[in-house]
Amino acid sequence: MEKVLYHYTDLQSATLIRNTGLIKQSVINATFGTGVYLTEIQPTASFNEILFNNYDDDVSRRQWKQLIEQRGMKCEVCIVLKISRRLFQEKVVQCETGRNVFLYRGDLILAQMNEVVFRVR
């Protein structure tokens, strides 16, 4: 059985990901450590729901707006990833937070996924 997770990003980064076949791990502002940040929140969710999930826990509305200004509104593109059970067990951990956040340890190679779909929101 495979696991479906989502990676949200901006259009420029999505183009780079598609061209290289690689989602590079986050190392800056990586609250739960280096890796590729994923979620179970589907692309039918609102921009606000996705952005709130993407940013740090327990921030005020003012801080949240500042985070979006600093880091960008990175949810224009949703990358749908179907991950094999084996790879999920080896590489993915659920982060201990009140948010829906998973961490793929290391760079994520698209060719290793069962299926990859890019969706512009």
The level 1 CATH classification is Alpha Beta
* CATH architecture grouping: Alpha-Beta Barrel
Helix content: 25-40%
CATH topology: ADP-ribosylation fold
Q: Please tell me the overall pLDDT.
A: 89
> What is the CA–CA distance across the termini?
27 Å
Strand content: 25-35%
Task: Tell me the radius of gyration.
Answer: 14 Å
Number of strands: 8
Strand order of the largest sheet: 1-4-8
Organism: Mya arenaria
Protein name: Tox-ART-HYD1 domain-containing protein
Name the features:
alpha+beta; ADP-ribosylation fold; three-stranded antiparallel sheet; Tox-ART-HYD1 domain-containing protein; 4 helices; 30% helix; 27% strand; 121 residues; 8 strands
Explain the overall architecture.
It is globular, with a radius of gyration of 14 Å. Strands 1-4-8 form a 3-stranded antiparallel beta sheet. Strands 3-6-5 form a 3-stranded antiparallel beta sheet. The protein has a two-stranded antiparallel ribbon with strand order 2-7. β5 (92-94) and β6 (102-104) form a beta hairpin. 30% of the residues lie in helices and 27% in strands. It has 4 helices and 8 strands, in the order βαββααβαββββ. The chain is α+β, with helices and mostly antiparallel strands. The mean pLDDT is 89.
Write the layout of secondary structure elements.
Elements: E1 3-9, H1 11-20, E2 22-23, E3 36-38, H2 47-54, H3 61-71, E4 77-83, H4 85-91, E5 92-94, E6 102-104, E7 108-109, E8 115-120
Antiparallel strand pairs: 1-4, 2-7, 3-6, 4-8, 5-6
Protein name: Tox-ART-HYD1 domain-containing protein
Organism: Mya arenaria
